[in-house]
Write a structure and sequence with these properties.
Blueprint (H helix, E strand, L loop, with lengths): L6 E8 L12 E2 L2 H4 L7 E8 L10 H19 L6 E7 L4 E7 L6 E7 L4 H5 L28 E7 L3 E8 L6 H17 L45 E7 L1 H15 L6 H17 L6 E9 L17 E9 H21 L3 H14 L5 H4 L5 E5 L17 E4 L8 E6 L7 E7 L1 H8 L2 H4 L3
Parallel strand pairs: 6-7, 10-12, 12-14
Antiparallel strand pairs: 1-6, 2-5, 3-8, 3-13, 4-5, 7-8, 9-15, 10-11, 14-15
Helix pairs in contact: 2-4, 5-6, 5-7, 6-7, 6-10
Length: about 450
């Protein structure tokens, strides 16, 4: 018997409630934006329970959809690039090829209504994340360059038997994780304000993009056609599980890492990343001389001098990594691995950021998912610092965070806050099936989850 599938009921396009003068101008893209052109959209969403009596009123879901649309239209006044489309400016003499966000006269953000004849338990109780979760998001397998014709933002609201999933997909050229959740938080804030004419939000986004000193905001790319810098990538068959780490467990991991190094400088996130790196490397059964890396997504806003504000809207991230051999990683212990990551993070200064930008000006490097990541490494993405469970849309607190197909590969780990708050975390881990089975049997790993 085939499992139920998501049924798509309707779609519409939502424009900002009104247009400002700023929203009529092109938004030119910084190096960190342009390097995302060939990777996937960001796909994250929240699973909510239906409030008591919700199913008794046939208008409940219809009313919710209208309120979501109305509040989204107000939120897009502030986050107007999300209602736009990408555009290419190209000329022969002098040679010019650049991509920007065209906000004026765009169709708007896409809004999808869908349904699925499954319960919340059907989504959350299986050991692995059910594949149907990927259908809770638009832009399946789309790359960011597709934003020339596809929406830069889609909200998909999927009604379950006893729950509602609100899935959000945003073009990664337009926003990084910080900006993704900045938008989501603002949308929730507008929804909760309940005033259609309340156009103020507590954290207005800053749309003026950062460019290297002395450089024009129109960055000329050395291409003549998008085939020269885009590619499609299909992930291998993988298992995807969400593992919970309690505050007490994380405290023990951090204390052990610091104790082994006779320091107090190693953070919870650095210690946890080292722990996962070691456990996954052991599960993969590498030979001692096999090189392995742990990559961390790192926010450059606070590392630039002067720093960028937290409300800077766009991409301001890089990946940094620590590399060693499997033998060294497993032989030297948790503290040693965590210290390698600690050093990698603290050495990522304004000087290194600017050196990377200077290098990019020469290479115009565009991330390619199929080439950038390898099966001997892990990649730690997202952040438990993002406010995910604070988003409410008249449904109470969400039960879980889930993500779509996008940007997943063997060794991808996404960090989310735990539902109980504090410093607890949920880790969404993607591994090939035989590696996941080995990880589930790893004593050092199972003792901590």
């Amino acid at each position: 018997m085939n499992p139920p599938t998501v049924k798509f009921i309707s779609e519409s396009f939502i424009k900002p409630k009104y247009s400002s003068e700023e929203s009529k101008k092109p938004v030119y893209l910084a190096p960190w934006d342009l390097m995302m052109l060939s990777v996937h959209y960001i796909q994250k969403g929240l699973l909510f329970p239906k409030p008591p009596g919700f199913n008794d009123d046939e208008n409940s879901f219809k009313d919710l959809l209208q309120k979501l649309k109305d509040s989204l239209s107000v939120t897009l006044v502030h986050f107007f690039p999300l209602a736009g489309r990408l555009a290419t400016l190209q000329q022969d003499e002098p040679p010019l090829y650049t991509i920007y966000i065209k906000c004026a006269n765009s169709p708007g953000a896409r809004f999808i209504q869908a349904s699925l004849n499954l319960s919340v338990s059907d989504i959350l109780s299986p050991t692995d994340v059910p594949p149907v979760v990927q259908s809770f998001f638009d832009h399946d397998r789309a790359i960011n360059h597709d934003g020339h014709t596809e929406s830069l933002l889609t909200i998909q609201v999927t009604e379950l038997i006893d729950g509602i999933f609100i899935g959000c997909s945003i073009n990664h050229v337009v926003a990084d994780g910080s900006s993704f959740w900045h938008f989501f938080n603002a949308w929730s804030e507008v929804f909760k304000a309940k005033g259609e004419n309340n156009l103020t939000i507590s954290r207005p986004p800053i749309h003026k993009h950062w460019f290297p000193e002395g450089h024009d905001p129109i960055l000329n790319l050395p291409f003549t056609h998008h085939d020269q810098f885009t590619s499609r990538h299909d992930s291998p068959l993988m298992r995807e599980r969400v593992f919970h780490f309690s505050a007490a467990s994380l405290a023990k991991i951090k204390a052990k890492a610091n104790s082994e190094c006779n320091t107090t400088k190693i953070s919870t996130l650095q210690a946890l990343s080292a722990h996962i790196w070691r456990c996954v490397t052991r599960a993969r059964g590498f030979l001692p001389d096999q090189n392995t890396s742990c990559r961390l997504a790192i926010n450059n806003r606070t590392r630039l001098n002067p720093p960028l504000p937290d409300d800077y809207f766009g991409n301001c991230i890089q990946t940094v990594k620590a590399t060693t051999t499997a033998g060294k990683l497993l032989r030297n212990g948790l503290g040693w691995a965590a210290w390698q990551l600690h050093q990698t993070v603290i050495n990522h200064t304004d000087k290194l950021v600017l050196e990377w930008v200077d290098s990019w000006q020469q290479t115009h490097f565009i991330y390619q998912l199929g080439q950038f990541f390898d099966t001997s490494s892990i990649m730690m993405g997202s952040s438990p610092r993002f406010d995910m469970y604070g988003n409410e849309f008249g449904l109470g607190k969400a039960l879980a965070i889930r993500s779509g197909y996008a940007n997943k590969f063997d060794g991808k780990v996404s960090l989310y806050p735990g539902i109980e708050g504090g410093v607890s975390m949920d880790l969404e881990i993607c591994l090939q099936p035989h590696f996941m089975t080995a990880l589930e049997s790893d004593q050092e790993f199972t003792d901590t989850v």
